[in-house]
Amino acid sequence: MSETTFDYIVIGAGTAGSLMANRLSADKSRRVLLIEAGRKDDYHWIHIPVGYLYCIGNPRTDWLYSTEPDAGLNGRVLRYPRGKTLGGCSSINGMIYMRGQSRDYEHWADLTGDDGWRWQNVLPAFKKHEDHYLGADEMHGAGGEWRVEKQRLRWDILDAFAEAAVQAGVPHSTDFNRGNNEGVGYFQVNQKNGWRWNTAKAFLRPICYGRPNFELWTGAQVSRLLFETQPDGTRRCTGAEVWNGTEKVTVRATREVVLSAGAIGSPQILQLSGVGPSELLRQHGIDVVVDAPGVGANLQDHLQIRAVYKISGAPTLNVMASSMIGKAKIGLEYVLKRSGPMSMAPSQLGAFTRSSPDREWPNLQYHVQPLSLDAFGDPLHSFPAFTASVCNLNPTSRGSVRIRSNRFEDAPAIAPNYLSTDEDRKVAAESLRVTRRIAEQPALAKYKPEEWKPGVQYQTDEDLARLAGDIATTIFHPVGTTRMGADNDPAAVLDSRLRVRGVQGLRVVDAGAMPTITSGNTNSPTLMMAEKAAGWIVEDNR
């Protein structure tokens, strides 16, 4: 940390920050500092796909956040994992490659007044860093840093569920990433030869490490951003204060600071730095730089409702992993072939469909798994079963992220406010009925599926919505807490090029910038946003 002045400072070496650092440091005349609060990604469980089980809830790799008690979940508190290591959430997530639907980006363009966010204009950014296993075509890229592969295992029970979904009216799909993801099929994943492919491998190693103009600090947490008043009276972000474990170090950026600490971390840092709702900042004794009520508001997340079905006559992970012999066989298959359950993403089979026929677009996503447990992190059940988790892709509930104090060490208060609208409760009830309709199809009959959770005794909308509150959990897709918007939108924190309104020299580039959540997993859309933002920064500072 002997050098403290750089052209660009990128805060957060996660999904967006790793790509940003790569693109900005490609210009050898610009010095780039990448700051990561976590450690290097040299923990072996990061790289073995099933290792997410040992990374989530582990202080080595996870911030260990929890939500506030949530009324929509009948007062429950949820674990809220966020990656704290190089690669960020791409080091602990489900590895599912998912862009969302074209309509998501058309809506962003309408909300921001910027056609640059339309589907045809974001598709090139997706393709630029993509390395698809089938090669390049009009929808996919090849030769980029971000590897996309098919999964290395199949399950009879998942094949049967897919056939049952087709019988229930859901078309078969081999690719969810062509603009309309309606259908059922196996997810494509961010893996390479059976190993997790995180953004640290993709964008930092070995490329950035070999650049003399690139510097990486790990174990370094930003406590606040620094602002200076310019001669014209405007405020400019000029750097950050960084805690390295023993002392605070001040770093300066001569061109821009890029905040990529995620949908939880970025609003926390902004609020600690005086950019946020003025009443909240004053409550904690923080001087107001910009009164920005949208900072920490607009939190959106996908809530998965986990229906569990007991079965017979088909292998599931519950049974395979129930003995030492079974576990040894699983481990041996991975060692010899890089396949089998240890190569699994948390969810293998996906489906996108409508909660009711009057829906214009698919508004439900399924993550189907050949296993079951009471809650994430708990032991597998002793009986053979599969889990069909379903989430509302376009929730109308909105939550918040707000600092609890003026201490950077204190985790913020995370209040998702799940199922807080009539619309979301209605979709929750409808989605459980769709799950039951699929389970009743002939393709699954030979496995004798028995609804174990929530239970067939619950039938009314009121019953099902209440049960959703009892059994639903986050699927780890928080977005929107520093959202971009049109110039006439007072609640928008960012303009359409992700610049923070009210100050100069500062952008937020992560999932918090999304105005509305994408219709699927959020990791790859975040990479796309970083690709576009990196191009703008280079263009603006040329």
UniProtKB/TrEMBL annotation:
Q: What is this protein called?
A: Choline dehydrogenase
Q: Which GO terms describe its molecular function?
A: choline dehydrogenase activity; flavin adenine dinucleotide binding
Q: Give one Pfam family.
A: GMC_oxred_C
| Enzyme Commission number, as recorded | 1.1.99.1
Q: Where does FAD bind?
A: 222
Domain Glucose-methanol-choline oxidoreductase N-terminal, by residue range, is: 262-276
Checking SUPFAM superfamilies in the record gives: FAD-linked reductases, C-terminal domain (SSF54373), FAD/NAD(P)-binding domain (SSF51905)
Tell me which cofactor or cofactors this protein depends on. FAD
